[in-house]
């Protein structure tokens, strides 16, 4: 399973998750309080998809994917009733009901399909890798891996 994520300025990291995430399509997940979680699809639309896709480094959003069009997630549902204008720099600039406030199940996770143009997050400083980690760019994505002698997920690296 492939995941993608990117970070811009004070934004919360995002990723696309699911079997088509390598093809710019998937369930949107947010990293908040050291935990990945999902977004409920209440009011999910193209404006939200545009902001997510831009934050992930894609040229634009192609479709907003509501329930049933993305695989169900697990864990915390972090956001609900996200309402973007489409001009925000990142998803956390959009209005929503508050972190962890929702009225839905994982059957109603929100997703996006993004255009395939790529941005190199690593060279542009748009990654959220730890200073003791290496950033590797992939299409629409990046990954972080702790340097030798450090353990962690790449966003957090602790000396061994």
UniProtKB/TrEMBL annotation:
<dbReference type="GO" id="GO:0005509">
    <property type="term" value="F:calcium ion binding"/>
</dbReference>
<dbReference type="InterPro" id="IPR036772">
    <property type="entry name" value="SRCR-like_dom_sf"/>
</dbReference>
<keyword id="KW-0245">EGF-like domain</keyword>
<feature type="disulfide bond">
    <location>
        <begin position="53"/>
        <end position="114"/>
    </location>
</feature>
<keyword id="KW-0325">Glycoprotein</keyword>
<protein>
    <submittedName>
        <fullName>Deleted in malignant brain tumors 1, partial</fullName>
    </submittedName>
</protein>
<keyword id="KW-0732">Signal</keyword>
<dbReference type="InterPro" id="IPR018097">
    <property type="entry name" value="EGF_Ca-bd_CS"/>
</dbReference>
<feature type="disulfide bond">
    <location>
        <begin position="84"/>
        <end position="94"/>
    </location>
</feature>
<dbReference type="InterPro" id="IPR049883">
    <property type="entry name" value="NOTCH1_EGF-like"/>
</dbReference>
<dbReference type="InterPro" id="IPR001190">
    <property type="entry name" value="SRCR"/>
</dbReference>
<keyword id="KW-0677">Repeat</keyword>
<feature type="disulfide bond">
    <location>
        <begin position="40"/>
        <end position="104"/>
    </location>
</feature>
<dbReference type="InterPro" id="IPR000152">
    <property type="entry name" value="EGF-type_Asp/Asn_hydroxyl_site"/>
</dbReference>
<dbReference type="Pfam" id="PF00530">
    <property type="entry name" value="SRCR"/>
</dbReference>
<dbReference type="InterPro" id="IPR000742">
    <property type="entry name" value="EGF"/>
</dbReference>
<dbReference type="Pfam" id="PF07645">
    <property type="entry name" value="EGF_CA"/>
</dbReference>
<keyword id="KW-1015">Disulfide bond</keyword>
<dbReference type="GO" id="GO:0016020">
    <property type="term" value="C:membrane"/>
</dbReference>
<dbReference type="InterPro" id="IPR001881">
    <property type="entry name" value="EGF-like_Ca-bd_dom"/>
</dbReference>
């Amino acid at each position: 399973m492939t995941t993608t994520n990117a970070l811009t300025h004070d934004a919360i990291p995002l990723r696309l998750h699911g079997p088509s995430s390598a093809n710019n399509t998937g369930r949107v997940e947010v990293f908040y309080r050291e935990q990945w979680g999902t977004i409920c699809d209440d009011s999910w639309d193209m404006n939200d998809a545009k902001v997510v896709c831009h934050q992930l480094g894609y040229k634009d959003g192609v479709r907003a994917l509501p329930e049933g069009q993305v695989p169900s997630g697990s864990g915390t549902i972090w956001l609900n009733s996200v309402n973007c204008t489409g001009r925000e720099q990142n998803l956390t600039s959009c209005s929503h009901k508050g972190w962890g406030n929702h009225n839905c199940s994982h059957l109603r996770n929100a997703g996006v399909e993004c255009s395939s143009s790529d941005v190199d997050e690593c060279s542009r400083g748009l990654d959220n890798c730890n200073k003791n980690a290496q950033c590797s760019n992939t299409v629409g994505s990046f990954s972080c891996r702790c340097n030798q002698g450090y353990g962690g997920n790449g966003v957090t690296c602790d000396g061994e």
